[in-house]
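--- STAGE predict ---
source: upstream dedup step, 1 unique chain passed
mode: sequence only
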Amino acid sequence: MIVNEDITQIKIDAIVNAANPELVSGGGVCGQIFAKAGKLLAKDCAAYKGCPVGEAKITFGYKLPAKYVIHAVGPVWQGGGAGEPALLRGAYEYSMELAVTHDNLQVAFPLISSGIYGYPKDLAFHEAVVSLGGYLMNSREIDTYLSILPEGFRPPYCQNDLKAPLESFLKDGGDTALFSDKTPPSGSRPVTPLPEFLANLQKVKGWSKEELARRANLRVSELDSVLEPPEGAGKPPKNWILALALAFGVSGTETVALLESIGMSLDPKSVTDLTVAFFLEKGITDVYLVSEASYTSGGDFLGALPKIVRKEGPGR
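--- STAGE serialize ---
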């Protein structure tokens, strides 16, 4: 989930500190974490005698609401030619490994290296989304929160070859048959109730619930509410259905039919819906990539909905 929240105030299993290699108190988020955790945090960090760039160490959270603090050391930006992307991805992935090892199922990250370390925020955001998304695609269920800094920051979409076509598509209001008034072909319309139809797709793919949830950027509990809705439950959020359609790799026409089966449709006035339609026409179904493009353009992340609440100071 994408948040704009002070991670030092979140009651959660673990928060990630944008640390320096010496693992000492610094500015921004790092300084806040040390100040709020108390002296024992500094003592624990000193025992490690530092941490290599691209790796992470873990301590208790002490006076923080979080049980643990994972100290991830990102690279200083040197123009992009000194291995910075790989080191930044390593910091995220190493942090996730530590989280899983210590049974932390909820982890909140700042945008590592995007503060005084000078990593361009658009590139730092992209690496964070790719790193965390890639890890979650191949790991057990774990809730991750990425705090966007500063408040209101919407990073440019980094897939340059599609940036201009997407902007044009959004400006034109979605010049595509997916937004037409024509009824989708009968062969594309689910002949079974939506939960059963999606469950059958899951069986065809051979995915566990955990894997499908990761691919659709959903919690397993949220996926369960779609596949096995309780009696009297309302319609699932359209965002979830779009995420599941992308995760399963169904066509644009099939996506329209899925929505219509529960009385929904693609809205040509919705940036999120337009962005999804654009990528469906391109045959691109990576939920995390489409989500990044949607969020960048002013829409929502797909799957678990973002929670934009408070501003957090600059990170390292």
